[in-house]
Amino acid sequence: xxxxxxxxxxxxxxxxxxxxxxxxxxxxxxxxxxxxxxxxxxxxxxxxxxxxxxxxxxxxxxxxxxxxxxxxxxxxxxxxxxxxxxxxxxxxxxxxxxxxxxxxxxxxxxxxxxxxxxxxxxxxxxxxxxxxxxxxxxxxxxxxxxxxxxxxxxxxxxxxxxxxxxxxxxxxxxxxxxxxxxxxxxxxxxxxxxxxxxxxxxxxxxxxxxxxxxxxxxxxxxxxxxxxxxxxxxxxxxxxxxxxxxxxxxxxxxxxxxxxxxxxxxxxxxxxxxxxxxxxxxxxxxxxxxxxxxxxxxxxxxxxxxxxxxxxxxxxxxxxxxxxxxxxxxxxxxxxxxxxxxxxxxxxxxxxxxxxxxxxxxxxxxxxxxxxxxxxxxxxxxxxxxxxxxxxxxxxxxxxxxxxxxxxxxxxxxxxxxxxxxxxxxxxxxxxxxxxxxxxxxxxxxxxxxxxxxxxxxxxxxxxxxxxxxxxxxxxxxxxxxxxxxxxxxxxxxxxxxxxxxxxxxxxxxx
Length: 511
What we know:
The chain has 511 residues and is α/β, with parallel strands linked by helices. It has helices at 31-39, 48-51, 58-71, 74-99, 103-129, 136-149, 152-169, 193-202, 224-236, 238-250, 257-281, 306-314, 343-358, 392-406, 424-441, 489-497, 502-509, and strands at residues 173-178, 181-186, 286-287, 290-292, 298-303, 322-326, 332-336, 363-364, 367-371, 376-379, 412-416, 444-448, 461-469, 472-482.
């Protein structure tokens, strides 16, 4: 049995939007920065409730992929953007109607909002009906719109709005102002005195003259004089204004629930497409990843940290892309190398890659295949919190214990610069134990560390290193490649800590 169409985000779902909180890892992975820029100017849609809700089913992800593939076709995208603009206009008019004080003015703005709604829905239905669509999401939407626009409910709403507009357009009246007295009367083909005045003064023109006219701002709110004039106009045309008032009461709930949901859901796709468009224009690649909940073999080509890419784009700087690959039985990427060499960026990139994939969105890179995790956990360095009465190393152990208690074989762990606050001996001992538990769990993991020994704990681990220029070790390439750990990571960390790194020595000797 085919379920009735309700959503272009969720196939066959019947629940409404939830409003969950941001996941705990959002800040560590800089997903909060991405979302903040995404929703800027779209706050009214409350898109966080969608972006905070990852999918854990490959079929659900592919449903969005199919919608996106067709949505990026120019004809479809133009139709959808026009609909979104029309619905935005509708909401602006409704908001204005709700703010106004005078009832007749409220009713007219409400009518204008209804007109924008009817026209937007009708035009979207018409344009989608003219297109060859294949995705079940957009096909379902098209069929729903065709049925809805042919329904008695929509047809009567459209006809009534048109008739009201036509009737109100026939309203004509004259206003006479003498001293403090304002008289409103029916318009009886009185002479247009403004035209007479213009003709009289036409003969005094001498070439181009400076315009001393003052532009009067057209505020939507009426003052008390305008309101009283409108009240008297309504008395001159009682039938038209009575019908407007009845329409306002009767049609208060005109917005179709599915159409309202569609308007919001479309912004999820449009916001992301608008966000990545400047990066695409600079030549960076995005692709719809192949996703799975069964295999943990993964790869990504020319992928990058999306938040950092936007920052670099604003600064007109180059974005460095990286590749990654995991083949069975590989599960853990152990990242070592020099400080400030892109290790943490790589870890964030890996987390972003999986989360964006779980939202059914294009991910950074020309090609990608990723596992859909059931949960994402991050362990990044934190400042000491005196309220916990725990030292930094103890706090790290406490947080890692919490992660390992909750993680499953379907989870993704991002461990960044773990155990950097303790001695090498303790870091090796504790890191090895933690790594063994992760391997036993069979979870996917990125482990950024200065403990090179962790990169060779078994066939589940893969060693990757941040690289520098061969002839100038002070210059980071920000490329992270599959490479056996060289045993220098801890030495580099100690040298950095005590001001004995290559860069520090080079600065001193140059003085």
